[in-house]
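Hey L., structure's done. Input below.
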Amino acid sequence: MTATMTRTVAGASLPVAGTWSLDPSHTAVEFSVRHLGLSKVRGRFSSFTGDVVVAEDPAQSSINVSIDVTSVDTRDEKRDEHLRTNDFFDAPAFPTITFASTSVSGGASDWRVTGDLTIRGVTKQVTLDATFEGTATDPWGGSRAAFTATTEVDREDFGMTWNAALEAGGVLVGKKVKIEIEAETVLQAPAAS
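Output:
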């Protein structure tokens, strides 16, 4: 059955055209940032929605994702509360992070998805390095496709400038934030033939 969920375009294996929705219970939206210039603090968002619309022409595909800022989880409740304040995400004023793609390019297993990332009401263009990981049929007959994507952003570009200077030099929280996504999607509607 997997063969019916994929197709070959210019030598690249791709999912069939259609709308694929994120499965929140099998998708991870995670980030990491340096602490004290040493280790990385890792966090995730547990509440989000999104669709990957795979077009017949892969370059015409699109991705739209919305993330609930209040669902941030770094395994430390005090830190999570601080991240929701105006020092960082300002969740009361800006409850969602959004990403809307503007272009898709690449081929084989290496794709670049460029789009508008909006955090705290500030929109910046970012490019994700993405990989199509394959398809499978779940035990209930659903068609699933998996993707991974990574990018790095400067949090200060989005107005998250809070920091604390260290006595020995340097700062408490790094500026660069690595974003990693492991997405499992479910085919909602195949494209009309």
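The mean pLDDT is 89. The CA atoms of residues 40 and 117 lie 23 Å apart.

-- N.
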